[in-house]
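Rotation project, supervised by the postdoc (A.L.). Task for the rotation student: set up a whole-complex structure prediction and record inputs and outputs verbatim in this book. Inputs entered:
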Amino acid sequence: MTQRHERIARRFNELKAADRAGLVTFISAGDPDYDTSLETLLALPEAGADVIELGMPFTDPMADGPSIQASTLRALEAGQTMAKTLEMVRALRERDDATPVVLMGYYNPIYCMGVETFLAEAAEAGVDGLIVVDLPPEHDAELCLPAKAHGLDFIRLATPTTDAKRLPLVLENTSGFLYYVSSTGVTGAAAPSAERVEQEVDAIRAHSTLPIGVGFGIRTPEQAERIARFADAVVVGSALTDIVAQAESPAEASRGVLELTRSLAGAVRRARETAEA
Amino acid sequence: MGLPHPNPEFAPDAGGFFGRFGGRFVAETLMPLILELQEAYESAKQDPDFNAELDALRRDYIGRASPLYLAERLTERLGGARIYLKREDLMHTGAHKINNCIGQVLLARRMGKQRIIAETGAGMHGVATATVAARFGMECIIYMGSTDIDRQQPNVQRMKLLGAKVIPVTSGTGTLKDAMNDALRDWVTNVADTFYIIGTVAGPHPYPAMVRDFQSVIGREAREQVVEKEGRLPDSLLACIGGGSNAMGLFHPFLGDEDVRLIGVEAAGEGLDTGKHAASLQGGSPGVLHGNRTFLLQTAEGQITDAHSISAGLDYPGIGPEHAWLHESGRAEYVAVTDDEALDAFKTLCRLEGIIPALESAHAIAHAIKLAPTLPEDHVMVLNLSGRGDKDMATVTEHLADELAAGAPAADAPAQ
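Outputs recorded:
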């Protein structure tokens, strides 16, 4: 069994001590190409990403909007494979042993690789957690429980449709943090009202002591700042993959992603100060 | 007749599994809905009023029962098995798809949903969905791949006439699987008021079992009709398979009759060894897509690959989980026929029986043409003629351009 690194728990403890929300950034591994994506990944911690979500590309990302779907297809087009995605994590770990890495994606590529092989290699590469969108608690035996046995956190999504009856089931085997999907719909959808999200997050806190990250529809530093006042972390994805889509060169893509990461990081860092001032 | 009583021997388990296939592999946003749907379906199945209304609509609106027709000239030409055609092509909207849609729209109304969405490939499921939505006064949105919209214009126009909004899907490869992705995205976004009518025996539980139950009217009728005509059960059943709903509907009432051979015919496209086919069972491997574990066309990395078939309705890189299970357990046999064989069979049925079949159904006929001559004359075969071929005229005209220009296509010598 792999030893637990607890990078996610440690990071959220640090954030709590500093009384600020964390910034979780999503990029698709291999988008727009392996080298650019690796360069971006390696620079994300310094740009202010507290937790890195790295997308495992899949041809049919049903729960994602057009932006992340396009990014995953660009990565596949450029020849991204699961082995290369894990290689990126190894490369990051050579220089950064503190920033948690969460692999995000869909079950089929993992299932085809073989669950045990995947988990062993992911743990060895330095992955800390998994978000696998199409595995609800009803299928915990498939990947969630084996992942925990390998010392990996299994981060679950709770949504506005997750009612009080279902929430305990969703929370049961969730660890690391809970990802609150702030709107029904796919990634990249319209921004939710911060007041409503705050109420929903408060409602979840009555059932759980897990840190709560809020995502879906958060695109700008202003939106991130508003959410960071009450959430433990703010997740940004589509806004970053849009930059890659619109960039005129791979270098510009990397630069743009890091620039937005820096301004989002600034926003989550000042959120509670400005709220109190 | 109503819906069949669930037979515990064949029904999926509580988690929606047929053996290791099936399940509910969906995003959390959809889970409460799928559980609600399952509950609503279980209660509807037991409700005599629901079943009475369904029966009346089947009879008066769809035109059921569909005839079981002895194809005498085809039988005589092939010189073997007696071939009966189950005439789903004569049903309202021209294919078996309406059997499922009428059941699901009643369920939607029962659940208080006013907005219907569906995916479609060839457009037959889209037309059937638009039809029932019109009949019940509901808003209807159809997701259709932009590639399919180009090759199935008449069905696009039919859907529009029926009041549906047809949304072209350009994401991915712009075909049926992408249309299903976008329909799922719509559903995730509009969970409160929307009912998703899945068109085949695939998707998350309870869809595979529910669609099968609504389509099983085909097999139940066929069973009664063949007993009436032949005084016994058939020896074999044949049906084409894309997602597999017409085949499942025919097979299911016979699953317990072990002497009845069940044969599903997949689309081999340009050939199983060319990589350009839609035969998920024979050219695919197990994986998880669109809410269920089943056989998929995919790379070793688990990336979904494109399906290829002359028939847009078979052009799907997966198959219903119950078929995957019947395949693995050996209860049903699965074979594949190529585009060319299907086209030959299409011509044969036109010329020998005066029936223009859907290209999908022509795949089943193509296999019958190979199989029937090897069987004794007292062998009784029931073939599901799942749809009519009017929608395929453009495709067929294009492929047979030279023959049509020269006169009638040569069709009186079926391939042996």
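Student's summary: The CA atoms of residues 79 and 188 of chain A lie 25 Å apart.
Supervisor addendum: Chain A has one domain: 4-276.
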